[in-house]
Amino acid sequence: MRTRVKICGITNSEDAKSSVAKGADAIGLVFYRKSPRYVTLEQAKHIVEVVPAFVTVTALFVDPTIDEVKEVISETKVDLLQFHGEESEAFCSGFSRPYIKAVRMKYDSNLSALVKEYASAKGILLDTYVKGVPGGTGEAFNWDWVSKEKQNGLNMPVILAGGLHAENVERAIDVVAPWAVDVSGGVELMPGKKSETKIEQFMKAVNEKVRR
């Protein structure tokens, strides 16, 4: 099975075009003001304009208000919502777009319970737990906690995030066998600015894994 790729933290049209050209299935726009990858509505509109059909534009939030989410949907026409905070299932499912829920993994996290809690989600995104930081840490967690053997019966696509880059993504896919991988810092020159070379190397690593 092919592993899908989402490149998150896109802040400009050029990086969006590069991501798509290199084969990304989705891009992510961060609407969390404390993030170095935060985009305004105006920036987001310009980015969305250059994204072609069949590439999913994802809007990332951390404990937003209902009005904030509705405004992003109305103004940018994003395809998918991604929630990284303490949002409830009822909140996440209350909009006119499908959603995925991010959870920050600890050694004792109960993945089955989390999936049941957000049963209406289109996928569960597994990120690294760092106290006080909702995501984008650049650190990987222990993938053995969510190995493919431990996912039996989950009945929900798993999206792996946290500290991924070209040098470790093949092993990550080996261990977890995720539906998709989500990368941000691992393909950057600096926070908010992607490297076309790193994107290419990351995509090559993912695709080489598929061919083996």
TrEMBL record:
Superkingdom, taxonomy of origin: Bacteria
Pathway noted in the entry: Amino-acid biosynthesis; L-tryptophan biosynthesis; L-tryptophan from chorismate: step 3/5
Pfam families recorded: PRAI (PF00697)
Keyword terms of this UniProt record: Amino-acid biosynthesis, Aromatic amino acid biosynthesis, Isomerase, Tryptophan biosynthesis
EC identifiers of the protein: 5.3.1.24
Keyword Isomerase (UniProt): yes
GO terms, biological process: L-tryptophan biosynthetic process
Domain N-(5'phosphoribosyl) anthranilate isomerase (PRAI) residues, every copy: 5-204
The keyword Amino-acid biosynthesis is annotated on this UniProt entry: yes
Recorded catalytic activity of this chain's protein: N-(5-phospho-beta-D-ribosyl)anthranilate = 1-(2-carboxyphenylamino)-1-deoxy-D-ribulose 5-phosphate
GO molecular function (one): phosphoribosylanthranilate isomerase activity
Homology family: Belongs to the TrpF family.
Stored HAMAP family: PRAI
NCBIfam families in the record: PRK01222.1-4 (NF002298)
Protein name in UniProt: N-(5'-phosphoribosyl)anthranilate isomerase
